[in-house]
Amino acid sequence: MSAREGLKRWHEVIKAGSSPEALSAIIHPDAVFHSPVVHTPQVGRPIVVAYLSAAGQTLGNDSFEYVRELVDGENAMIEFQTTMDGIHVNGIDLIRFDEDGMIVDFKVMVRPLKAVNKVWEQMAAQLDRQKAG
Predict the structure, then answer these.
(1) Sign of CA dihedral 109, 114, 119, 120
(2) How high is the mean pLDDT of the chain?
(3) In b/e form, how buried is each residue of 5-23, taking b as 16+ CB within 10 angstroms?
(4) For the chain, what percentages of helix, strand and coil (3-state, to nearest 5) are there?
(5) Residues 130 and 50 sit within 8 Å (Cβ to Cβ)
(6) Model's pTM, two decimal places?
(7) pLDDT in tens, 109-132
(8) What is the largest CA-CA distance in the chain?
(9) Most exposed of 17, 31, 49, 75 (fewest Cβ within 10 Å)?
(10) Which residues contact 107 (CB under 8 A, 6 or more apart)?
């Protein structure tokens, strides 16, 4: 399965609300997540699902949209933009898929600096809510 098919599944999960259950179905058990604000890679399906679910809750507002995609073999890069508390956020998701279309590596990069700070603030709060809930 190419990244194109894996990316199609990713978009279906995002459009359906990024539920932890749906995310778990497309994340490899040994997947790695690279956050724009956490310096160490986060390893394993449970933590990757937690981060992506939190991102869906914080970034996935009415203004969120993917604006460009590049696909090459097992890799996909998707550019996104959104607005959070009046701050324009521009970023990319760099995703690597395995032969079964499961996400094995997910890296997020965000710009500009104000956006990075806003994403960090809201993601930290969402992850804290997930832990408490």
Answers:
(1) positive
(2) 91
(3) ebbebbeebbeeebebebb
(4) 40, 35, 25
(5) yes
(6) 0.90
(7) 999 999 888 888 887 777 777 677
(8) 40
(9) 17
(10) 33, 34, 93, 94, 95
Number of H helices, E strands in the chain: 4, 6
Residue with tokens 């507002």: 61
Long-range pairs for 64-69: beta carbons < 8 A, 24 or more residues apart: 66/11, 69/7
Q: What is the DSSP string of 49-86?
A: HHHHHHHHHHH-STT-EEEEEEEETTEEEEEEEEEETT
Nearest 5°: CA angle at 99, between 55 and 32? 35
Contact yes or no for 106/18 (Cβ under 8 A): no
Reported as a pLDDT band with limits 50, 70 and 90, residue 70 is very high
Any idea how long the chain is? Answer: 133
Measured CA distances, 132 to 43, 50, 115, 125 (Å):
21, 13, 26, 11
Count of alpha carbons within 13 Å of 40, Cβ hemisphere only? 4
Q: Can you tell me which residue has the tokens 């965000």?
A: 110
